[in-house]
Amino acid sequence: MLIFIISKILIEYYILFNMHEMSVALNIIKIAEEELNKANGKRIEKIHISVGKLSGIVIDSLEFALEVAMKEGKIPKAEIVIDQFPARMKCLHCHEVFEAEEFYTICPVCNKFEHEIISGKELLIKSLTII
Ligand SMILES: [Zn+2]
Q1: Residues at Cβ < 5 Å from ligand 1 ion
Q2: 107 CA to middle of ligand 1, Å?
Q3: 100 CA to middle of ligand 1, Å?
Q4: Domain spanning 2-130 has what CATH number?
Q5: Cα 46 to Cα 62, 75, 78, 125, distances in angstroms
Q6: Most exposed among 46, 50, 77, 106, judged by the fewest C-beta atoms under 10 Å?
Q7: What residues does each domain of the chain span?
Q8: pLDDT tens digits along 34-91
């Protein structure tokens, strides 16, 4: 019974977890469709997305969600390219600006933890190739 409960929680977590990527994917497809219409193009050949390290987005999940979302939308078979970029942080003590791979990164100059995030939480559509 305990195993059943744990697996149920895991499944719910998994669904919840993927819903985030799915809603992001649906937004990307919506934007791509709008741009396709604006450009009066035939179809979208390639979508290049860049994801910040602190965005909380799992690239494999986003890729999968985009495949599903494209089947529902008007842009079948578009090539998807996703890359990641590091976060930029500013130390609140010594004002050093540095790159970080994760939220819990200490300042490389003064070794303190308090910082503000300058970038790295966002997702960018870098380019759309419309033909
Ligand atoms: Zn510092």
Answers
A1: 91, 93-94, 96, 107, 109-110
A2: 5
A3: 13
A4: 3.30.2320.80
A5: 15, 10, 5, 11
A6: 77
A7: 2-130
A8: 999 999 988 889 999 999 999 889 999 999 889 888 887 656 778 999 999 999 999 9
